[in-house]
Structures
1.
Amino acid sequence: MTLPASPSTATNQLRPATWMRPGSARHYAAISSWLLVLPLLAIYAIGFLYPLTKLITLSFIGGLFANYGRLLDDPLYAAVLANTVGIATAVTVSCVFIGYPVALAMARLKGRLALVIAACVFIPLWTSVLIRSYAWIVLLQRHGIVNSLLVATNLTDGPLKLLYTQGAVVLAMTHVLLPFVIVPIFSTLQMLPQDYARAARNLGAGAIRTFLFVTLPLSLPGVFAGATMCFVLALGFYITPALVGGPGSMLMANLIGQQTTVLLDWPFAAALSTVLLAMTIVFIVVFRKALSFSKGFSSVH
């Protein structure tokens, strides 16, 4: 006589194999986790680690520090590096000061006005960087719209040199990178509970004091995230400085492009790229430390 299967035995038969079954609601088994992650690791190794290894190896051709020594021997390269960091810092500061009020308006306003502001922020992201940079050439050239308005209103006696200057580079790069600062700040502000601000107002704090001591400290993670993204992108910007900047506005990306396409000095270009990569990593670590300090400083005890 065959005994009926117990409920536990029937349940075990209906369960999937161990290698497919997660250990809990949030964890997969080890082999299934590796199968899921393996395509990403392959893409990461082929598309990033291998080219990066080749780049660093190429920078040592001709001697252990032959190409890196040129960076110290010629002051031109140090000046370009300092100019790159200075312009990236100026663009980041400009984007934060302009983008924070816009992100705050997007998070606080409702209805059509909020949609209009959001459209002004996101629509430029759908436009090519080349087109947006060329638009600034049309605006800032000697007989462009800005100079025409200045001359027509008698604010200047003649056209000003607005194009091919560092100011034009900072202005154009700020316009291109502004959405990358607004979006993280907006996401942080939107997630902040309004009860904190209302509690501060009920305790007697005015609108400015509430913003300075409640809203701003709690939104610093978004500010640091947007500033980090903007600064890293500005360090490697190529198209905009090449179009609206003059010889005095050369950045590291333009110098690397010159070494590869004009002078065909690939080892030295690899050394410049490695230095720029190392500097980017250093600044990311600094931003991360500042973000950790901000979280600890603004935490509520």
Note: The chain is about 75% helix and 0% strand.
2.
Amino acid sequence: MTGSGFRPVFHPAGHDHALRHALQDLRAGRWGAMARLLDDTPHWDGWTRRTQVLATVAAGTDVVHAWRAEDPDSAAAAVMHGRVAVERAVRAHRAGHARTRTLWQEAWTACREAAGRAPADPVPWIGLLALAALDARRHIAEHRVRPPAPMLPPGPWGLLAEADRRDPYNREAYHRMLQFVYARSDGPLSEAVNYVQWAASTAPTGSPLHALPLYVRVERYRRARGHEHALDLHWVAEDAIREARHAMDEWFLFCAVPEASPLDLNHLAHALYGALHFTDAARVFEALGPYYTTLPWADRVPRPADRSRAEEVFLRARARCLAG
């Protein structure tokens, strides 16, 4: 893994080999492995992560539709239907598609139906949170609820509370809320900073929410049009180092790596590398194994869409840290 022949692997399943098999089955137009995988997923964190990854592939197919047709009583199929509908609406919104509003309404209905079919499941509420980011002007009343703490903006706090009630500190739920905060403001990121600091301060030890501030720091760098400066002052500022150390000490040292988000691990490796904490960064790179995500490395290059250049930055950072 540390030699010159190392090649990073970009795969949404990361260390989850059972999920990888289900994705292969899904791409072949079959839903059986997906159904069995979800049936064998006992915890909400794994359930949330797996349904999200499955939906990114299923959204381009009619496999979930076929599953529901053959097994109409399946609550898991209803939840996946909501997942797929949300994914399609979000993609349409991002692309400025003319059918965005229709897909948004279909997704909202699908999530509400799934919530009724699976009342203990946080995922339908996470889907509604994802849709809230499409309502940047907060036209819908449930998207402008009073916040739970000072310095936080009004937003879909009731939806977050519903997800929290079913799975406290659910990683995706809090990331979806961050996307809403981003969507409602094109100006300074002070609201996002306040939000992630609040979330991290309330999260228990071992929670991936301690990595949330790392995402806002990358967003600040991206908006400032910072480019390929490997040891940019942005990353060695006192607060940047503090955020990286906090994520290391409060999350990484306690997390089960095979169940951790590859995106979180890449953000932490990136933050520690930028903070010049190469020894700690090496531990995260070793935990990652071959699994690489384009972000946040793509924000270090002049053209973020150039994946090959982003991969080069990742490889340089990894080699520098492991050399120590």
Note: The mean pLDDT is 93.
3.
Amino acid sequence: MSISETKKLPELGEIVIVTVKEVTGHGAYVTLDEYDNLTAFLHISEIATGWIRNIERYVKAKQKTVLKVIRVNPIRSEVDLSLKQVTGEEKKSKVMEVKKDEKGANFMDVIKTNLGYDQNGIREIEEKISQKYDFIYDAFEAVAIKGTEVLSSLDLRPEVIEAIELESKKIQIPHIEVRAVLDITVRKGDGIDIIKNILGSVDGSKNNSKIDITYIGAPKYRITVTSENFKIAEKALNQAIEKIKTNIEKNSGTFKFSREESKKTHTNI
């Protein structure tokens, strides 16, 4: 979504962010944040099921909330809304969408200032990004995770790509960390060196995952895999464990492992 885009009227069934303007005995007047603060109405019958004693228990003046469009009159520019028809998932998704728009707008404001672009120049960048991404913020997040090569098809100037990369470093990317404890022995004169070489062959960054191996105390080692989601991390851990096991057993060693609890972390890429 282009952050410079302003639409005239919402569509029937659309989920919108509003600011409550005035609460009355029959409902609430609100302004549509994404539609140039167009005034719309939330009737008391669409606030909650059952009898409502106090409307302000559900909506208050100056409050921002998520509502659903249930009627649009394009001739008179009238919009009616519902609170009770909004599901928890719809609310969560809309709030996330708005946050993305705000963060994307903030990033573009910084780029506009740093590069000395006018609004037309910024709009041109947004249009190119929108060819590939639904939200401007998504481009920055993609760069934070995978690098500037994700922008190679967008025909952006080098200084713009550099500015996007700089701003993307501010993004905290959630990562999943999965771990296991390895119990390894190789009863040979150079057994320690064999173990070090085998563990070193899987230690490092591979396939969007980072693998760290630390020494706990003979004969135990901890392997930690960090990745952007559990599926990728789990796959990398299983592949690493299988490779270590195979090579240890080739050297007449013994191998056992036990899993540890996974956890979610945040990383500035």
Note: The chain has three domains: 15-85, 89-170, 173-268.
4.
Amino acid sequence: MRAFGTDFAVPSGYLNTPSVGIPPAPVAEAVAESVERWRTGAIRPDEFDEHVARARAGFARLVGVEPGRVASGASVSQLIANVAAALPDGTRVLTAEGDFTSVTFPFAVHPGVTVTDVPLDELPSRVEGHDVVAVSVVQSADGRIADLPALRAAADAAGAAVLLDATQAVGWLPLNLAWADWVAGTGYKWLGSPRGSAWLAVRPDAQERTRAVAANWYAGEDPWATVYGLPLRLAGDARAFDLSPAWLAQVGSAVALEYFAGLDLAQVQAHNVGLADTLLEKLGMPPRGTAIVSLEGDPARAAEAGIVSSVRGGRVRVGFHLYNTPDDVERVLPAFE
């Protein structure tokens, strides 16, 4: 099908974007071309630097920061570990109950850190007395959206740092997160990229509060000059936290993130949320203003109706993205009415 100016080979009833996004055709084609170059011995390692840079710039644009503030990695948890490992003993971290564990586990594994989780809607009112707040912009399990203005105000008043995981938001929700100390996100969900690419935006004054736990040659100021030998010589910007890239993932991400960064995300949001809220309305439930819907029902019935979805928190989770249509809404209804 064709949507938002590009083609998607997506089957009807595919509502599993919160787990795995479908790539725009040019993304899949770019990866296939790179696989062929690999298969035929035509690739050279340094050719992937361009893809890493393009993907980095795309993520920067999507979250509202400069590219030099963005580190490139493979997964959200690996990138958040750079933040958690740098925290001094005695640090108090506040998180949301039931948040995705790639956000919370890097802090919880730190023996000197105390992690407290509270209901998402109470998060801003509970910031006082904590040093760091770590939360997903959009909750993976059910699509609830954090009250970012209230959180920002509360964190400013309390002098607390803020880490945001934008994974379930970036690609459909317009974002300007330059105010946050750290913003993480991965590419294989709403950004239609291969799994193996992720990014961490680091506010300049937060860089000294971040530790390169997987320091490596690619995190050097000039990676091709930091392949061998000491002394330590990491990049002066957020690239100091880079991980050596997963090549094929970066090839796809370069194309995908440029595509999404060029969209009017307000239109994407209106499309996605419009379908999600239409589904809720037809099921007799109030609108929720998010692209992810969590429904009480039998996953087997959903599968029998031709719906590709996931089960999260004991409920069927569906997500609507730019390649979904009103026909997908109609397909869901019989399984939950």
Note: The first helix runs from residue 25 to 39.
